[in-house]
Amino acid sequence: MPGANLGIDLGTENVVIFVKGKGIKISEPCIAAYSNIDGRLLAVGKKAYEMLGRSSGNIKVIKPMKDGVVSDFTVTKHILQYFISRICKNMIFKPNVIVCVPSTVTDLEKRTILELIKLSGAAKARMVEEPLSAALGAGVDPQNAKGTMVVDIGGGTCDIAVVTMGGISVSKSIFCAGRSLDTAVSRQLKRERDIIVGERTAEYIKINVGGATLREVELGMTVKGKDYITNTPLVFEVTSKEVYLAMRPALEEMVNACRDVLELTPPDLASDISDTGIILTGGGAMIKGIDRLFESRLGVKTRVAQRPLDCVALGTGKIMEIIQ
């Protein structure tokens, strides 16, 4: 029996793995926890994420991906080995892997990722650009000659591309994405209210009361943090308006990057986009009202893909069907 065919979305925040014939089997945080005493791997994925911000001096929690590329080779290898072995533990042959990368990674970064995939247990490894895979996962027909703009808002990068005939015509990648929004929330609370919150809390606030536009009915939520002046724990309320104002500059940067891509798009493809619109994918596409923000700023109809977090991984499944 030949090895399994896997599609891996190796993201800054999450690892999503598609298995041909079975769908998505892994969708977990890209994070690992180690013992500071003997360097032993303690946990990967969800279990390691639970330790983030709560680990003792004997445990270190590491996110090995930064801005869509590998910043810690060894930790990334351990994470991939763990997840691949979970899927292929009863298989004799090594799997064949398609891995997705941001459209602007360098040749050196590409070679690093390919080597990493092979060392993690793959027999063969191929690469595909994330926005192209996201477009296919969102339902764009690879044979369609009409241009479609795809904006994949991940954890570390926002990849924007105009896709036509199964290829990318124009693209741009910026290091302003989901993690930037979390940082903006925590920075705003520290600057305006002298409150410190952890990385997980900032993300929790963004998800629950954040929005790309002002809500008609303002929401509030109670969260826990630490007083910057006294260093004592405190419970406080944060409103949806506060979070919107904190995130607005980063969201505008994403919109401006899309505008730059539209300006570089050939006229015929640009006219196609006015018909086909913009598709938002990635975890950042789940921010409330982000489709309305893009549509109002760019004047192009915008929609959020179904299962936006899984689009890149699902797209690898479509690519497997094309190349085999």
Architecture overview:
- The structure is a single chain.
- This protein is an alpha+beta fold and 324 residues long.
- The protein has helices at residues 46-51, 73-88, 107-119, 130-137, 178-193, 199-209, 240-264, 267-276, 290-298, 311-323, and strands spanning 5-10, 14-19, 23-29, 32-35, 41-44, 59-62, 65-66, 69-70, 96-101, 124-129, 148-153, 158-164, 167-174, 195-196, 220-227, 233-239, 278-281, 302-304.
- A 5-stranded mixed β-sheet has the order 3-2-1-9-10, sandwiched between helices. Strands 13-12-11-17-18 form a 5-stranded mixed β-sheet, sandwiched between helices.
- α2 crosses α3 (107-119), α5 crosses α7 (240-264) and α7 packs across α9.
Topology (elements, then pairings):
Layout: E1 5-10, E2 14-19, E3 23-29, E4 32-35, E5 41-44, H1 46-51, E6 59-62, E7 65-66, E8 69-70, H2 73-88, E9 96-101, H3 107-119, E10 124-129, H4 130-137, E11 148-153, E12 158-164, E13 167-174, H5 178-193, E14 195-196, H6 199-209, E15 220-227, E16 233-239, H7 240-264, H8 267-276, E17 278-281, H9 290-298, E18 302-304, H10 311-323
Parallel strand pairs: 1-9, 9-10, 11-17, 17-18
Antiparallel strand pairs: 1-2, 2-3, 4-5, 4-6, 7-8, 11-12, 12-13, 14-15, 15-16
